[in-house]
Design brief:
Chain lengths: ~290, ~290
């Protein structure tokens, strides 16, 4: 396995894989970036914006001399896509993905391939916008952002180095951790907030006065619900793919919300102020961390 | 009562009242803006940034020839402040406020004054930031934003006109509605989201790994929790001041969250996607409304 792979194959060229292609082209470190997908028009757009050098709908052609494969498809499509790719995977191919949950991707590859290839190193760039598709891709998406990789017991050291190298070329900082730790962290910081935002806007959507009510919504509501404009299919897959950790976070939050409700019911001014103060102090202390 | 009041008294000069002062000075329509408060240093800062022309800690002096009084104090301070002002209120004084809940302000004035003065017209500018204090004030805060006024049965027509005129001079659009309708709408679009954001960050704050977890939080989390950086005392007062409507919104949301949890538990892909699609469609349709 080449720890500085020159021929990259992007499977599915949306916001994340498309931005990775643009970032690698910006770095000028790759020989060729091939886009593999089912929709020729979408691939043509990816080539038009410069995210890939070459496009094909044929897995055999795409993987003929690829050194590293990036799975950039929605979580729910992982198994189907891997079944199509399976006959063309060489032992020295490095494989990574960009999914927002890692346990389900590992399970899918294990099932489809009958075991985990040494070249497989799961990954997750902590970056994105509420937009989707290669039209929303940009080379700077990963600049200074973190990418989590979750090397498995089966992962070859060279494959870990190759995936680490790939993301650093794209401008990101790379950190390694376990699959379980990743999935628990992301359930709290990303998956639960998305569920809450979707849930709040859906509650409003069912209010007969929602047109009027939204007319009076201010900046706080706008920012709080920005993530409710995210792709519904992608988030359906994430919530189900990371189901156990999401349910744990949901349960925890629902218990906290019950306590908060009791404080409002009891007009417990000191109790409410305590929660709000602790929250503000925690967020203010980390503000610059996630605002970089 | 003057329907175009020239001498304005701002009681409490924080973000909202301070910005109103700056906006009125920008419009050049007032003769004098007096700031009344307890803290001379804070009043000096308000004069230094140009939000008021004159500062005093003496209610008698502040109200001697004022035509319109704007109560810009936190909701929890309404009753205390009104008790101090009561001896100095003339019958032809127009009185308004900027509180995020209206029923509790009306109750406080009725109790303290032994009835509702004809000059009183509650108001609420739908504008603000997560920052507080006159240092965060700016003249453009209300430009193109909505101000809700809730005229009471006791309100004189001239007082309603004066408050309407005031906010239009500050650049805002003014709409009138009932106290109950205001309080229900704001519970949904503002008070509930604040409780959820405070609650989520507080849940994180109590996690032993919260330092690390926050290090991986991305833009979605940053925007979702921006309102958790708001002033804890102000939001304690709002949640308790608008308790009935907040509890109704909380109850509604908790039932919806229970259903969402059941969908995740049951791996109900179609059900989850339906909620997410409806939420995205509703938010996208209104995006430009609250992003102006």
């Amino acid at each position: 396995m080449n720890t500085e792979p020159q021929r990259i194959c992007l499977v599915g060229v949306g916001l994340i894989a498309g931005s990775l292609g643009l970032a690698l082209k910006r770095a000028g470190v790759t020989e060729r970036i091939t886009g593999l997908g089912r929709d020729p028009q979408r691939l043509a757009r990816a080539r038009a914006v410069g995210a890939i050098d070459h496009a094909t709908t044929d897995p055999a052609e795409a993987l003929a001399d690829a050194e590293l494969l990036v799975l950039g498809v929605p979580l729910g499509a992982t198994a189907t896509v891997m079944r199509e790719l399976a006959p063309h995977l060489r032992d020295d191919l490095v494989i990574t993905d960009v999914g927002s949950a890692k346990g389900c991707v590992v399970d899918d590859l294990r099932t489809v391939l009958g075991g985990l290839p040494a070249g497989f190193v799961p990954g997750h760039p902590i970056a994105g916008t509420e937009h989707s598709g290669v039209e929303a891709a940009f080379a700077e998406l990963f600049d200074g952002r973190r990418v989590i990789i979750t090397p498995l017991e089966s992962s070859a050291g060279a494959a870990v180095s190759a995936v680490d190298w790939l993301w650093r070329q794209a401008g990101a900082e790379v950190t390694a951790m376990s699959v379980a730790h990743h999935d628990r962290m992301l359930a709290i910081t990303s998956h639960l907030p998305h569920l809450l935002a979707f849930g709040l806007v859906d509650m409003l959507a069912q209010d007969p006065d929602h047109e009027e009510i939204l007319g009076y919504a201010a900046g706080g509501f706008r920012d709080f619900t920005r993530i409710a404009s995210s792709d519904p299919v992608m988030w359906r897959d994430i919530c189900l793919g990371n189901r156990d950790a999401v349910l744990e976070a949901l349960g925890h939050f629902r218990r906290d919300l019950e306590q908060l409700t009791e404080k409002v019911e009891a007009a417990d001014a000191a109790g409410l102020e305590g929660v709000f103060r602790r929250a503000k102090a925690t967020r203010d202390a980390h503000k610059h961390g996630f605002e970089r």
